From TrEMBL:
Protein name: Xylose isomerase
Record-level Gene Ontology MF annotations: isomerase activity
Alphabetical UniProt keywords: Isomerase
Domain Xylose isomerase-like TIM barrel: from-to ranges: 21-255
Pfam families: AP_endonuc_2
Signal peptide (residue range): none
Lineage, highest ranks first: Bacteria, Bacillati, Bacillota, Bacilli, Bacillales
């Protein structure tokens, strides 16, 4: 039975952050998601989650450093350790990681410390993933590796293909290192989102949803997300589906669109 979560940083932006938990619960969600943890009061967040009977599905795990930059290996790994400790405080089971650190705006990948080859970057990522896998297993968290589009949102990002993500995850061979499949990013990069999730389902630990183009709620673009979620259900996907988008008009309209994606099926949250 798949679980849905709502992203309380890209959605509910009209409210102060601490008010978004109650709003999400009032709208019928049991699971929420957020980006970075460094700017949050984590004990207070845990209180807000508990007070509203919410669970935090996922948050960012890699912050300001690039996994594919060999010169940043040690600082990247130190940040990962801190992210694991942060996840313990808020009982977050999933930490999202990327090939590159992203600047806040525009969201270009931060420059590398040198002009590394493709092969060097891949080897650097594999080395990091193999290093953090036992940490994840011991802590009971799952790292999910997310590829991003480079046409609209994340120019210069190294990891852009689902197959590359899957190849890296498969090479590590840990149940706690998975792929985050973002249907918006991968629709722009690859298309064929139905076929891709079916092919790589065993490697997928989390999904993100936003319509394309525009990165708004389902129904504002060209992707039929109601059918896409039916497809996930039919495949037996029982993980989490995170709605990470920017409302086209307002939050109530966006929340209604999210709920309409699930009006057919069994779903938690």
């Amino acid at each position: 039975m798949l679980k849905r979560d709502i992203h309380i940083e890209s959605i509910y932006s009209e409210l102060p952050f601490e008010k978004r938990f109650a709003a999400a619960k009032k709208d019928g969600f049991d699971f929420v998601e957020m980006w970075g943890w460094e700017d949050k009061d984590l004990p207070e967040m845990k209180n807000l989650l508990d007070e509203n009977a919410l669970k935090l599905t996922a948050m960012s795990g890699d912050g300001p450093y690039s996994m594919c930059d060999p010169a940043k290996r040690e600082v990247y790994l130190e940040y990962i350790k801190k992210s694991i400790e942060a996840a313990k405080i808020v009982d977050c089971p999933i930490l999202v990681i990327h090939s590159d650190a992203l600047q806040e705006w525009p969201q270009f990948a931060k420059p590398m410390s040198s002009d590394y080859s493709y092969e060097t970057r891949i080897c650097a990522m594999l080395d990091v993933l193999k290093t953090i896998a036992p940490w994840a297993e011991e802590a009971g968290v799952t790292f999910v590796l997310e590829a991003l589009n480079i046409e609209k949102d994340h120019c210069g990002n190294f990891l852009t293909k689902t197959k590359t993500s899957v190849d890296l995850v498969a090479a590590v061979g840990s149940p706690n290192i998975k792929v985050l499949y973002d249907a918006y990013h991968m629709y722009l990069n690859e298309g064929k989102i139905y076929e891709t999730v079916e092919k790589y389902l065993p490697y997928i630990g989390h999904l993100h949803i936003a319509d394309a183009p525009g990165r708004h709620e389902p129904g504002t673009g060209v992707i039929n997300f109601k059918n896409f979620i039916k497809h996930l259900d039919k495949l037996g996907y029982n993980g989490s589906v995170g709605f990470e988008f920017y409302p086209q008009t307002d939050t109530p309209t966006a929340v209604k669109a999210v709920k309409e994606c699930f009006d057919y099926s069994s779903v938690v949250g």
